[in-house]
Amino acid sequence: QVQLVESGGGLVQPGGSLRLSCSASGIIFSIGVMGWYRQAPGNQRELVATISSGGSTNYADSVKGRFTISRDNGKNTVYLQMSSLITEDTAVYYCNARIRTSLTPASDYWGQGTQVTVSS
Q1: Would you give the DSSP letter of residue 64?
Q2: How far is it, in rounded angstroms, from Cα 15 to Cα 44?
Q3: Is the predicted pLDDT of residue 19 greater than 90, yes or no?
Q4: pLDDT tens-digit readout, 45-56
Q5: Is residue 85 within 8 Å of residue 118, measured between CB atoms?
Q6: 70 φ, ψ to 5°?
Q7: What's the CA gap between 21 and 5, in Å, rounded?
Q8: Whole-angstrom Cα distance, residue 82 to residue 109?
């Protein structure tokens, strides 16, 4: 059974920084694209950033220049460094990964979500 476990959310003041982590565990054969999504109250879940297994990145326009996604393939972990946070960044952040196991083809897995609140 594959699991994605997120950590690092919390309360931060505008202009502050947070770093989210998400680790995949289980009998994993390979991990393709990993990414972060977020969902604010009353809104649909939206893409924040993705990173391929080779390190190519993609960002939502709203976070470009402020957020940085990275990954450690040896640890099956993806990170999201968030800086210059604004109140509009307040949301539940979800980790996503496309994972292939020895028994199943590549499928999308989601973490449980971690709350990020930007407020003074």
Answers
A1: T
A2: 25
A3: yes
A4: 999 999 999 999
A5: yes
A6: -150, 170
A7: 8
A8: 22
